[in-house]
């Protein structure tokens, strides 16, 4: 039954210059145009027809193609996110060491010191889970590493958003201006709680896989 359910979609190549296809407009994300890799467009299809030879791999293999990219793609997003968090923490520390309020450097205020500490903790936690997921992919393959991939896809964006938000708070109004990259960082990372599967879908998958693992352990003890 699962095999049949996973073969209901196909992928086809549609040339941009084909009759009936019209690019309407590029879509912005939090006001930013996502241009580096082509962006996201609103596209209208009106009676568009392509030859059967444009079918990729074969009929019903769309889900297979998507899943082949999504596992490694999700962990790649997490790796990049951790790099963003490191940059945000660096900005936070530099600002905290330069800015003086109430006669003290910002980092000398306990709340800011705690933000710095919590940021480092969050980054290291996310990094270790990312490494575990990557190791699972290498040793077991993406299909068998589904739980680890889903976990890091939930954990990394949430952790990095927390770090970026702290950095914005330390920088004050400048943190949301074009003088710092923090606003763009926040916009990019926030999309990852939706892209390649929203948090809620991954959490449901984690719960299902965990219950299956627990059931196997319980059965083995009986």
Automatic annotation (TrEMBL):
InterPro entries: Acyl-CoA_dehydrogenase, Acyl-CoA_Oxase/DH_mid-dom_sf, AcylCo_DH-like_C, AcylCo_DH/oxidase_C, AcylCoA_DH/oxidase_NM_dom_sf
GO MF annotation terms: acyl-CoA dehydrogenase activity
Source species, domain of life: Eukaryota
Required cofactor names: FAD
SUPFAM superfamilies: Acyl-CoA dehydrogenase C-terminal domain-like (SSF47203), Acyl-CoA dehydrogenase NM domain-like (SSF56645)
Keyword terms of this UniProt record: FAD, Flavoprotein, Oxidoreductase
Entry GO CC: mitochondrion
Domain Acyl-CoA dehydrogenase/oxidase C-terminal: from-to ranges: 60-208
Gene Ontology BP terms: fatty acid beta-oxidation using acyl-CoA dehydrogenase
Pfam family, one: Acyl-CoA_dh_1
Membership in a protein family: Belongs to the acyl-CoA dehydrogenase family.
PANTHER family found in the cross-reference section: ACYL-COA DEHYDROGENASE FAMILY MEMBER 11, MEDIUM-CHAIN SPECIFIC ACYL-COA DEHYDROGENASE, MITOCHONDRIAL-RELATED
Protein known as: Acyl-CoA dehydrogenase family member 11
Organism field: Chelonia mydas (Green sea-turtle)
């Amino acid at each position: 039954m699962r095999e049949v359910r996973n073969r209901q979609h196909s992928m086809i190549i549609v040339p941009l210059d084909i009759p009936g296809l019209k690019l309407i407009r590029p879509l912005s994300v939090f006001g930013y145009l996502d241009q580096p890799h082509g962006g996201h467009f609103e596209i209208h299809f009106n009676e568009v027809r392509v030859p059967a030879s444009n079918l990729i791999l074969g009929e019903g293999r769309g889900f297979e193609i998507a899943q082949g990219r999504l596992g490694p793609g999700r962990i790649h997003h997490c790796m990049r996110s951790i790099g963003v968090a490191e940059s945000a923490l660096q900005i936070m520390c530099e600002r905290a060491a330069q800015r003086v309020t109430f006669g003290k450097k910002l980092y000398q205020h306990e709340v800011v010191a705690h933000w710095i500490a919590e940021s480092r903790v969050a980054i290291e936690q996310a990094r270790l889970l990312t490494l575990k997921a990557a190791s699972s992919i290498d040793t077991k393959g993406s299909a068998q590493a589904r739980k680890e991939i889903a976990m890091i896809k939930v954990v990394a964006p949430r952790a990095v958003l927390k770090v970026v938000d702290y950095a914005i708070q330390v920088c004050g109004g400048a943190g949301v201006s074009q003088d710092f990259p923090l606003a763009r960082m926040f916009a990019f990372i926030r999309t990852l709680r939706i892209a390649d599967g929203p948090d809620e879908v991954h959490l449901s998958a984690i719960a299902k896989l965990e219950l299956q693992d627990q059931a196997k352990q319980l059965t083995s003890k009986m």
